[in-house]
Amino acid sequence: MAKQEDIFKNVISHAKEYGYIFPSSEIYDGLSAVYDYAQNGVELKKNIREYWWKAMVQMHENIVGIDASIFMHPTTWKASGHVDAFNDPLIDNKDSKKRYRADVLIEDYCEKLWQKAQKEIEKAKNRFGDAFDEAQFVATNPRVVEYLSKKKEILERMVRGLDTGDLADVKALIEELGIADPETGSKNWTDVRQFNLMFGTKLGASADTAMDLYLRPETAQGIFVNFLNVQKTGRMKIPFGIAQTGKAFRNEIVARQFIFRMREFEQMEMQFFVKPGEEMQYYDYWKNTRLKWHLSLGLGNENYRFHDHEKLAHYANAATDIEFNFPFGFKELEGIHSRTDFDLKAHEQHSGKKLQFFDNETNASYVPYVVETSVGLDRLFLAVFSKALQEETLEDGSTRTVLKLPAVLAPTKAAVLPLVKKDGLPEVAREIIEELKWDFNVAYDEKDAVGRRYRRQDALGTPFCITVDHQTLEDKTVTIRHRDTMKQDRVSISELRNIINEEVSMRNWLQKMK
After folding, report:
1. Residue 264 annotated as binding?
2. 90 known ligand binder
3. How far apart are CA 341 and CA 277, in angstroms?
4. 439 plus 311 within the same structural domain
5. For position 294, which CATH number holds?
6. Are 381 and 460 members of one domain?
7. 339 is in an annotated binding site
8. Residue 495 labelled as part of a binding site
9. In this predicted model, what pLDDT tens digit does every residue of 263-321 receive, in sequence order?
C-alpha cells in the first residue's frame, strides 16, 4: 500500500516538475481539487481528445459532433432528473472531520474481497499450471465462493438502501463491516446524508430579474435537446450518434486523488440513437469497441476490466464501467450505459415539443432508445500518465526516469540536439526543426551534455531524440535515438519525417482496433 502511495506521489510531483499539471492559483495557495494543465499537459490532453474524436467521429460515417453551450435553460435539468436526484450519499467521520462518499467506502471494502479472491485464484493457477480450470475453481473453492458471495451480498444491500432512501441502513452496513476512516482508522461515523452536486449561478443584468441557472453537470443533455436539430439538418438515419467533448462542473464534496475527481472536468461523450428493442446489441457493440480503443494505446490488457453496475441509474436498463488500474486501484474510467428513451421522453414532456424519428420504411414515428459512451478526459490523462511513468535500472546499474507515453499522444514527438553549440551544428539542427515542424511538434535542446539531454527528454516523454554531429556536415545523416529502447540508428535527414510518422501517426495506432 505504501508503495502505491509513493507511486502516486511521484506521479503528482513529476506532472508539476515537467510542465504537465500545476495546482490552480498556486501563488494564492491554490484551490482545492482545481488544477491547470501546463505547457506539456495541454498538448497531451489535446492529443488524447483528438485520438478519441478521430476514432469516434471521423471513423464512423453515422456519428457527428456538436459543441453545446455550458449554460442551458434550467428546465433542462428538471427534465433530466438532476434537480431532484443528482446526489451523493456522504458520511462524516466525527473524529477526523473528514467527509467520504458512503457508497465508495463500501465499494472499496468489496474491492478488497475481490482482491482476496483473485489471490486465491492466482495461487491455484501457479499450483496446477495448464491443468487449471478457473471456472470450476471459482465455483467450488470455499474461500473464493465466500469472498465473492459476501461481496455480492454487501453490494446488493447497499443498492437497496440507496434505491429506497434507507440511508440509516447504509450507515448500519458501514458499521457492521467495521469500515474505518482510511486516513485515521476511526469508526466514529455521522449519519449518511444526500448532497446535490450541481453548481448554481445566475443569468441577467440585475439581481431582481436574474434567472437561476446551473453550470452543466454533464455534456449529455446538450446532445439530447439538439437531437432533432442534428437529425434533420444532417439527414441522419437511425442508428446514428452525436458526439461531444467539453467541460462539466460538479460540486464534489469529496474531491481528491489529484485529477481523478475534480470540480471542473472534461467529458468525451457519444449518444447513439437506436430503434427500441435493438439497444442491447448496440450496448454490447460499444462495450467491445470502446475497450478495443483503450487497448490500442498499449497500456496493458491486465489494467482494464469491466464492472457491471449493481445499482442502475433511474434512466438505464443496463450499465457497465471500463475500470482502469490506477495507482490507487481499479476505478471507473469510462461508462457505457443503455439509457432507454428516458431522456428524449422527459424533454418532450417538459418542453411540449416532439423529439421523435420518422421511419420512412414503416411510415411511423418513435422515440429512439440511446446507448451512451462517456469517458472522463482528465481521468484518461491520469491513466495514461501514471502508467507511462517508470523508473528503470539500466545494464550499467544506473537508473533513469522515463515517461513512456504512447508515441501518438506524446506532447513533443522529437527533440533535435546539436552535439555542441558551434561549428555550424546548431544551424543544421534549426534547419531540421524548420522542416519537421510542419508535421510534428518538435523541440530544440542544446543545454548540457548530450547524455543529460537524453535523460531530460526521457522524463518529458519525447519518443525521439535527433542528434546533429560533425558527421552530419559531411553526409547529411543524424543519430536518431528511440526513447523506450534507447536504441540509436544512423539515418539520413531526408528519412526523419517517415521514421517519426510511422511511430506517431493516429492511423497506425487506431488500426490496432481491427
Report:
1. yes
2. no
3. 11
4. no
5. 3.30.930.10
6. no
7. no
8. no
9. 899 999 999 999 999 999 999 999 999 999 999 999 999 999 999 987 777 778 899 99
**Contact present, 144 and 115 (Cβ < 8 Å):** no
Question: Binding residue per annotation — 392?
Answer: no
302 assigned binding-site residue? no
Burial 186-210 (b: 16+ CB within 10 A, else e): eeebeebeeebebeeeeeeeeeeee
Please check if 435 is assigned to a binding site: no
Would you say 357 is a known binding-site residue? no
CATH number of domain containing 496: 3.40.50.800
Domain stops at, among 386, 404, 423: 386
Is 218 known to sit in a ligand binding site?
Answer: yes
Does the annotation place 268 within a ligand binding site?
yes
The reported pLDDT for the residue numbered 254 is: 65
Quote the pLDDT of residue 1. Answer: 43
Q: Residue 101 and residue 145: Cα distance in Å, rounded? A: 28
Q: Are residues 222 and 362 in the same domain?
A: yes
CB 30 within 8 A of CB 23: yes
Q: Has 258 been labeled as part of a binding site? A: no
Please check if 71 is assigned to a binding site: no
Is the previous residue joined to 239 through a cis bond, with omega within 30 degrees of 0? yes
Q: Is 278 annotated as a binding residue?
A: no
Q: Which domain holds residue 263?
A: 42-386
252 among annotated binding-site residues: yes
Q: What letter represents residue 313's amino acid?
A: A
Q: Consult the annotation and say whether 260 binds a ligand.
A: yes
Alpha-carbon span 155 to 168, nearest angstrom = 15
Is 56 annotated to bind a ligand? Reply is no
Strand, helix or coil for residue 101: strand
CA distance 499 to 478: 13
Task: Please name the residue that has the C-alpha cell 503528482.
Answer: 12
Question: Is 372 assigned a ligand-binding role in the annotation?
Answer: yes
pLDDT digits (tens, 9 = 90+) for 82-107: 887 777 888 999 999 888 889 889 98
> How far apart are the C-alpha atoms of 473 and 25, rounded to whole Å?
48
- How many of the other CB atoms lie within 10 Å of CB of 58? 13
